[in-house]
Amino acid sequence: MIKNGKIHVIGLGPGDRQHMSERARTAILDSEVVIGYKTYIALVEDLLEGKEVIDSGMRKEVERCNLTVDKALDGKRVCIISSGDAGVYGMAGIMLEVKNERNADVEIEIIPGITAANAAAASLGAPMMHDFAVISLSDLLTDWELIKKRIECAAMGDFIISLYNPKSMGRVHQIEEARDILLKYKKPSTPVGIVKNAKRKGEEVVITDLAHMLNYPIDMLTVVMIGNGKTYVKNGKMITPRGYQL
Amino acid sequence: MIKNGKIHVIGLGPGDRQHMSERARTAILDSEVVIGYKTYIALVEDLLEGKEVIDSGMRKEVERCNLTVDKALDGKRVCIISSGDAGVYGMAGIMLEVKNERNADVEIEIIPGITAANAAAASLGAPMMHDFAVISLSDLLTDWELIKKRIECAAMGDFIISLYNPKSMGRVHQIEEARDILLKYKKPSTPVGIVKNAKRKGEEVVITDLAHMLNYPIDMLTVVMIGNGKTYVKNGKMITPRGYQL
């Protein structure tokens, strides 16, 4: 009798190997099968010797999870990888959903990683020292009206706001509308950090403000960080004070 | 001439060494001086051989940062450590502020870590798969009225909400008031995860709902995770669907 295998859902962190956790690394090494979008597979190529590797294209999330369950039901130790934290717009949820849907008797462990907001914050200085909101501008799976409402509520609450998936080739108006909503509550001089490829190869960091943010390149690999009412820029770093007396 | 040293501000992650990044580990090993609150120093004891170690008590944040600058100006490689992500209610901001205040010619690198919300989410299942807000209930440095407003705005926007510092020995009413505000917008049956010591020794995970959450122990080592309108509990896991079609 083959004992059913175990599934590890792994967040690789921002991309640079140095920012991956030891737990993620050992879980990959211990796996017999590694499944993931090909860009992420490439990030851990050197850990994959002797393993079955299944890479797939974008938007094949459900298919990837089903394959993962199949392999685990075959008794294999499988890991499914994505960048950042698997629990933030990543594979953790859909993996649990597919397992439940199939009523599959396999164990799943979610291994957290450093998500893009935290990576971008570190490269900007210390913008995320106080209450913050993370919002994805992708309306592929979420109604744009709901996303707009969330931007409005986060701005109204003077949250630091980290925008994921701010813009893609075919999706350009969201970041402009988002900025219009933010400007209803936040000053045009509110600091904005734009970080492309945070904490990985090709990192680009821009610090600007709400008034000027659209003058800079923004794409799917970018996180846009908007300060709260107390955020300021000094010596090239974006800082949100926590409130300590110096 | 002694070259001024470098400061690393390090987030150790949730506490279990396995969830620390390689970058954090090597930066500690490369340091000559390690400064931190004594609880965090204890977490990395085995990395400290041959180093000058300065541990200090709670609420000495500014003093600790000044000491760090002093050591760096002496030409030392210094690291200042805290748990989770140094950039989320951690030491990153105050470190940059103290450096700027003293106009000190030292380089500072912020090394991100896995913050408590992401660690707790992994132990709960996949509650944080959609837009979320992180709010600290500590009113030591922040006006309680502002915190309440943020809870209200986050609830209004149907964010997943992660509450840090929900309750301490001398501060008990905030979590009750927070729940009252949440109940204005969210159903009593909204799933709530309560995670103590997320991803470290002594972890305790409870999954309940808004109606019953106050029946469980909550303290300063606890993160309270409140679902959005679509979050559900199945097979002992808290899941917020991203919206994929199964």
From TrEMBL, chains A, B:
UniProt-listed InterPro entries: 4pyrrol_Mease, 4pyrrol_Methylase_sf, 4pyrrole_Mease_sub1, 4pyrrole_Mease_sub2, Cbl_synth_CobJ/CibH_dom, Precorrin_MeTrfase
Pathways involved: Cofactor biosynthesis; adenosylcobalamin biosynthesis
**Any one biological process term the GO annotation gives:** methylation
Q: Which CDD domains match?
A: Precorrin_3B_C17_MT
Pfam families given in the database record = TP_methylase
Listed A to Z, the keywords are: Cobalamin biosynthesis, Methyltransferase, S-adenosyl-L-methionine, Transferase
- Tetrapyrrole methylase domain segment(s): 6-212
What NCBIfam families does the record point to?
Answer: cobJ_cbiH
Provide the protein name. Answer: Cobalt-precorrin 3 C17-methyltransferase
Q: What is the lineage of its organism?
A: Bacteria, Bacillati, Bacillota, Clostridia, Peptostreptococcales
